[in-house]
Amino acid sequence: EEPHGAAPVDFLQELPSCQTARRRRGGSQERRPALLGTAGSRGAAARALPQERGELADRPAREHPDCMAERRNIRDSQQAKTEHLSRWKKWRRASSKSLKKALNEVKGLSSYLVLWRHDIHSIEGKFGTGIQSYFSFLRFLVLLNFIIFILMFSFVTLPSIISKYGIFNSTIAYSSPKNIEDICTIYEPSGNKGLVYFYTYLKDLLSGTGFLEVTSLFYGYYSIDAEWISIMRYNLPLAYLLTTFAYLALSFLWIIKRSVEGFKQNLVHDADPFQSYCNKVFAGWDFCITDPHAARLKHRSLQYELQMDLQEEKLKQKIAERRTEEVLRIYSLRIFINIIVIAILSGCFYSIYRVTVFSQENSSDTDNANSQVNLLVQYLPSMVITLANFIGPLIFSFLIRFEDYTPAFEIKLTLLRCVFVRLANIGVLLFSLWSQISDCDSDKCKPCGYNYKLYPCWESDVGQEMYKLMIFDFIVILAVALFMDFPRKLLVAHCPCKLIQWFGHKEFEISDNVLEIIYGQTICWIGTFFSPLLPAIATIKYFIIFYVKKIVLIHTCKPAARPVRASSSNFFFLAVLLIGLLLACVPLGVSIARIPSSKACGPFRNFNTSWEVVPDTILQFPTGLQQVLFGMASEAFAVPLFVILCIIMFYVMALARAHKRVVEQLREQLVLESRDKMFLIRKIAEAQRH
């Protein structure tokens, strides 16, 4: 027996890891070199051990992987060593510790300043992380819209207000449009004059007309070419366009950043389900919790997570055990249901198109301009869009139950189907408006380049449509909560009718609620260019919706029969939001670069299109800088840049594949080490028996 000597070679060859390596090499002829290599690697590890110990010795005692008694001894030895240091080193070490402690305290206090921190924590414990991810997503949109509002107000609205009221000795510079007929510059907003009834103000507040049309809420208010604040010239048209690009870029980068974080969590979870179980069972508890109520919330959260994992594993096992006849039946049913979904989508698109065309053709009837019928005709597109947005998700949520998907995939597929309904509705509405603005018959567009008689300031008209869609969507959300959710709760609780009891309490549909706020956010992104203060309205809207949805969830809904995991939901919510942002960039790009800007209002009235302010500004730069900027915008610069980006992308993809292979090897190595430990335990037990 050699307790401190090397193990025999034959014994090492019996280890599962050695047998696996030998089997992969395809024979035993490389056995000896492998052992030598193993010894060499052990030597390298032995040489690296003192260095690691030296690095560990410099760390605080609480970071050492030892028991409490050993940590106390390490702390005492570290304190003894500090007595022999110079005053400068003692002061520097004490300052470093104080700074770290202060930063940790500030970080701990800042966590209490997080918006709705306690509310979201409570929702997570009662209803699971899937529903918690919806409210976290809603909080993200509140912060995003608030930042967008700060951008638009600081660089567009505030300079205009300062100039118009003459603050800080500011003046306004107006430039008359050149080579434009006078008829194109006529714009008379329909502001309220004289005695006005209360319901007129209410109608204006809901439709964005009347007194709201002449405020800073809409594009037509900003009819300033340049501002002089003291001795500084402020180019408002350029600031307006650059701020639009800035909030779109900010939204894109922020969504990408959050998506990467969710993608990492989703990737780690999907890579090894067993690791997810181990993390929840052995490392899922927060030992800093001292409040019994918080402990119950954390317990419920872990329970929902484990329930979700077990249910998905059960569904995967059920899918693996399906027979051929059952697989054919399920796929046939899915094909049939998808045909029904396509028919519903086609019907929604066609209905919205016909209603929008009808509204545009009949709402300009001057003989019926003040009648209630004409007002109803003007609101027909918003009503039909809202009806399609309300009925479509209900039908899709009902049909998805028969397709036998996992809960996470059900949410994704339902979201994708609803995205086509909601975002295509906005596209159809904008297409109809632009067809009336630019594609006009006879000589309506000849003097100005657009239908100036019907739309003298078409940007404000588009902003009013986006404003009406947002307000109408907010009213519908409140109406559903007040007149559907709460009455259903009361009927189920107090009425013994079997039909009502069959409906039961409402479940919180994550896909439908997420699509509601993504639809509203897409409207905000599009409408901010035409209505600069629309993000402020969106911020207030989502702030109120958070509390409305929270009350509805707690008092009228029951926990979902099939809870949803937050890791996959967060990533997919942001992916759908990114689709909405990219689709919002399309109409904005067309409006900025293709459609002629209004000549009677707005900061771009001296330019044929809004984009022309950029080359016009560049022409005022020095000649050398002009050549550099125009060169960067040419094909000679774009093609090499594209090639370089492609090379970088392929390199990153290759690096990711290499890292993935290393991770797989390390995971296999961990499995082999666990088998070696079990093998050694069995050998020790056998030796003790003999």
Describe the structure.
This protein is mainly α. Among the domains are: 91-116; 135-271 and 459-621, no CATH class; 634-672. Helices cover 72% and strands 2% of the residues. The chain has helices spanning 9-13, 16-25, 31-57, 68-82, 87-111, 117-127, 129-164, 198-207, 236-271, 273-283, 292-320, 324-362, 372-400, 407-437, 458-494, 498-503, 510-527, 534-556, 566-593, 613-618, 623-632, 635-689, and strands spanning 170-173, 226-229, 232-234, 506-507, 557-558. A hairpin with a 2-residue loop joins β2 and β3 (232-234). It is globular and about 110 Å long. The two termini are 14 Å apart.
Set out the fold topology.
Elements: H1 9-13, H2 16-25, H3 31-57, H4 68-82, H5 87-111, H6 117-127, H7 129-164, E1 170-173, H8 198-207, E2 226-229, E3 232-234, H9 236-271, H10 273-283, H11 292-320, H12 324-362, H13 372-400, H14 407-437, H15 458-494, H16 498-503, E4 506-507, H17 510-527, H18 534-556, E5 557-558, H19 566-593, H20 613-618, H21 623-632, H22 635-689
Parallel strand pairs: 4-5
Antiparallel strand pairs: 1-2, 2-3
Helix pairs in contact: 6-7, 6-11, 7-9, 7-17, 7-18, 7-19, 9-19, 12-13, 12-14, 13-14, 14-17, 14-19, 15-17, 15-18, 17-18, 17-19
